[in-house]
Amino acid sequence: MIIDPEVVTLSRMQFALTALYHFLFVPLTLGLVWILAIMESVYVMTGREVWKRMVQFWGVLFGINFAMGVATGVTMEFQFGMNWAYYAHYVGDVFGTPLAIEGLMAFFLEGTLVGLFFMGWSRISRVAHLLVTWFLALATSLSALWILIANGWMQNPVGSAFNADTMRMEVTSFAEVMFNPVAQAKFVHTVSAGYVLGSMFVLSISAWYLLRGRNVDFAKRSMTVAASFGLAAALSVVVLGDESGYAVSENQKMKMAAIEAMWETEPPPASFTLFGIPDVENRTTHYALRIPWVMGLIGTRSIDKPIPGIANLVEDAKGRIHDGILAYDAMLVLREDKNNAQAKAILAAHDKDMGYALLLKRFMDDPRHATPADIQKAADSTIPNVPVLFWSFRLMVACGFYFIALFAVMFWQASKRQLDKRRWLLKLAFWSLPLPWLAAELGWIVAEYGRQPWAIEGVLPTALGVSSVTTGQVWTSLGGFVLFYSALAIVDAALMLKYARKGPEGLGLWPPAEPEPPVATVAAHAGV
User: Fold this and answer.
1) Distance in Å from the first CA to the final CA of the chain
2) Residue-wise pLDDT tens digits, 485-510
3) 394: exposed, middle or buried (C-beta count within 10 Å: 0-12, 13-18, 19+)?
């Protein structure tokens, strides 16, 4: 049966919506908790109450964000059963393992430590509470690690193989899954982006206080920590992003070619296209402004290795589809006769290409009947949306360099104790608040949308992973998620604004300002 493309599109839309929304909370949790740990360390070392109140205030905003992240993350995982049942069946043995470890090892640990963080101020010692905060920071990173190990396997499915007896993918080396180079590169890049977001969150809200002359000492200290931590994090994002780019060029060549709108293979080292207008129909990039050598150095770490272009990769895909059809035929033979030695040998020789044969399932029921035109169509389908990837990547990179510049200036102002001297700079910091979220979402689009048409790179096409549901059923669940997430968005925005506007004094964490004495009293003391 040919797959219903509308069901696939709606299921992808639903997962994209929930994932993008969930990712609004994850980076802030990753970054803000480390700022809390730094602030509380200063409090324990100095004993100054101002630092304790800073931890408690920013901790309230962290708690709101953490609760929303949990609510959106749990519901997102329901979709593996609702909309992606075949995906869960086919690769669940591999993909589900790190997710289960994340839930058992990291998520429960986070929940326990969050409770201790909020309830333990008057129940445990200062040092013990500091350890709780640091362990909470480590637990959030540990949670992200296991999630990104699962996601990294989708990008680069190492340590696994197709089992003809069970007709599923199974783990062959958990160590390879765990130490997948793509997963490790994604982890360090993602957590660094979270550190930037957390820093900008603190910086922007503190700038808002300074613009209004409120909580000046509190805001200056908060901005100093945010500027210092943010500058280090922003620099790390660029460096680690380079490593992530190298991992993509090694394992996801089509994604790299699409990001660069590189239609043909260039002589090494390839240039970087700083600006251009990709033309998908004519497979060219108009008004291209290129920087020589840069892409070759980033993508290959050399000056003599080429980066394959889209046209060459499509030709490679055609060859892999031919080989995959042989593996697909052998798999069907083994379903009827599990002891067929010839079929086993053919499958063993071509099993790495069977996923390419499955690309044909979008167009026909049996890939073995594919014509050259069908194979060409399937090979062309391996090209992701080039303009979306091209511009998403460049906007993300532009944001990254902007963050470095802003944090560097704010760090310099903090070192001179002049954070409140330039209102235009405070306004710039305040209005920059949405940009780290924009950069994070663009990074998600590059990583996930750039993998299409694959759910598992080279193994399982996205179109084949959907559940046996109708369009009406998907519309119903999609509508439910839109309503649920919209309600959460309203609640989250209202709570964040409420407590940010209250400030630490509104939460009883800051002593109220003493009222000015009456004029007569001042005159009396002056002897008038």
Assistant:
1) 98
2) 888 888 988 999 999 998 887 776 65
3) middle
